UniProtKB/TrEMBL annotation, chains A, B:
<dbReference type="InterPro" id="IPR013570">
    <property type="entry name" value="Tscrpt_reg_YsiA_C"/>
</dbReference>
<dbReference type="GO" id="GO:0003677">
    <property type="term" value="F:DNA binding"/>
</dbReference>
<feature type="domain" description="HTH tetR-type">
    <location>
        <begin position="5"/>
        <end position="65"/>
    </location>
</feature>
<dbReference type="InterPro" id="IPR009057">
    <property type="entry name" value="Homeodomain-like_sf"/>
</dbReference>
<dbReference type="InterPro" id="IPR001647">
    <property type="entry name" value="HTH_TetR"/>
</dbReference>
<dbReference type="InterPro" id="IPR050624">
    <property type="entry name" value="HTH-type_Tx_Regulator"/>
</dbReference>
<dbReference type="InterPro" id="IPR036271">
    <property type="entry name" value="Tet_transcr_reg_TetR-rel_C_sf"/>
</dbReference>
<keyword id="KW-0678">Repressor</keyword>
<feature type="DNA-binding region" description="H-T-H motif">
    <location>
        <begin position="28"/>
        <end position="47"/>
    </location>
</feature>
<keyword id="KW-0238">DNA-binding</keyword>
<dbReference type="Pfam" id="PF08359">
    <property type="entry name" value="TetR_C_4"/>
</dbReference>
<protein>
    <submittedName>
        <fullName>TetR family transcriptional regulator</fullName>
    </submittedName>
</protein>
<dbReference type="Pfam" id="PF00440">
    <property type="entry name" value="TetR_N"/>
</dbReference>
């Protein structure tokens, strides 16, 4: 299948919108085609099926997001600043696109195990990025040397993720990005060498 | 509808098993009836529909769980010990019942908004319990006085929850309860007055 081009991007963006609005299970391929302004058959030039659309949109958006974060991280040398960049970009990205936030916090949490494993393989890229920050912090002596990297990653991701889900469930009615600072402070305190 | 009795408990336990095994969407009421060893019609004496079964089983199990935790918490005066009790009981409860863990980590994460709001209303009881520990810790001067209670609760719940989901996705293959201690240490460090 093709993986590039204007139509590919158009279909991905239409899928985010349709899935956020109708839920994954009620998002027929024909609905996505209509929203994208392409023929149903066109979708199948790019995607095998609806599942493939869901996983691909996550892969696509996550790939770009990780690239952007990595660029920002490279420009900062302090470990505290790197962690703040990660938290801020995570919250900003979802605050500026409510449909994407509904997709990440509700629709990607599929319980079908094969589908979920494919989704989690994509998430792995982001979790590995979090690990590099933790490892660097330990190496530099900013974080405790006996931190369990896996549990620390689960705390960082789990905290940010829960903050975002609450905000989605409260229909995005307060400012999410303002929460960067207190989240950053608490996470640093959890990890910092005393 | 009736809310008590041996058959009620039987249906609830059968529902946990059937939903964990087949997924909520493929758990027809008739499958649950068969597993419980009751007639289909009997289920409707107790529950309006499948949705009602899902919410009720969560309500029932969560109610008992909160009661048990509250009893344990009452027997401990130190705030650090109270937090450890909460983490330990959460992890123990799910480690000892894999079906329950699949239900809490995968099947209760429904994206349909009305259903999810009913589920989250039940979860609220547990989150309020976490809040009482945070508030007591602040009052006693063990935790920082400027902690944001909501974000702190999101960190505590989000961290434990992510630890459990990882373990479920890894098919329960390592010991979950051993993670109490490092999770407890990190959370305390995040909150403790310095
Ligand atoms: C639309 C897109 C928008 C993108 C841009 C937006 C920007 C923001 C980003 C938003 C992010 C939100 C995305 C939504 C994600 C949806 C999915 C969720 O629900 S997420 C929320 C829910 N969370 C999830 O669903 C995540 C669930 N987690 C997972 O599925 C996996 O961790 C993984 C696949 C992610 C990584 O797996 P892996 O690479 O394997 O790495 P591990 O370290 O896990 O494990 C390594 C090995 O260690 C073993 N081990 C571990 N602990 C212990 C222990 N204590 N003792 C002994 N052993 C232990 C373990 O068994 C394994 O060994 P083996 O089994 O291979 O032999
Ligand atoms: C089978 C059962 C086994 C049981 C025993 C097993 C033992 C272990 C336990 C396992 C637990 C796992 C259970 C699985 C749960 C499934 C559900 C999930 O996915 S959980 C994982 C995913 N997590 C979720 O799905 C949880 C999502 N959260 C929620 O849905 C809600 O927080 C709530 C319903 C839980 C509580 O709601 P509420 O009582 O309202 O309390 P809030 O504090 O949230 O809000 C209070 C007010 O403050 C406003 N506000 C907040 N922040 C800000 C701010 N920064 N600036 C300004 N304002 C802010 C906010 O808008 C609200 O005002 P208003 O809107 O009323 O005017």
């Amino acid at each position: 299948a093709k993986r590039k081009g204007q139509k590919y991007d158009q279909i991905i963006d239409a899928a985010v919108k349709v899935i956020a609005q109708n839920g994954y299970h009620h998002s027929q391929v024909s609905k996505i085609a209509k929203e994208a302004g392409v023929a149903d058959g066109t979708i199948y030039l790019y995607f095998k099926n609806k599942e493939d659309i869901l996983v691909s949109l996550f892969e696509e958006k996550m790939g770009k997001f990780i690239q952007k974060i990595e660029e920002e991280l490279a420009g900062e040398s302090s470990i505290e600043a790197k962690l703040l960049i990660l938290i801020t970009m995570h919250l900003m990205q979802l605050q500026k696109d409510h449909s994407l936030a509904i997709v990440t916090q509700l629709e990607l949490r599929q319980s079908n195990i094969e589908l979920r494993n494919r989704i989690n393989e994509v998430l792995k890229g982001y979790l590995k990025l979090i690990d590099t920050i933790i490892l660097l912090g330990i190496e530099k002596g900013v974080f405790k040397e006996d931190l369990d990297v896996r549990i620390t990653r689960q705390m960082i991701f789990g905290t940010i993720d829960e903050v975002v889900t609450d905000w989605v469930m409260k229909e995005h009615k307060y400012d999410l990005v303002q929460l960067c600072e207190p989240v950053h402070t608490m996470l640093l305190n959890a990890m910092r060498r005393s």
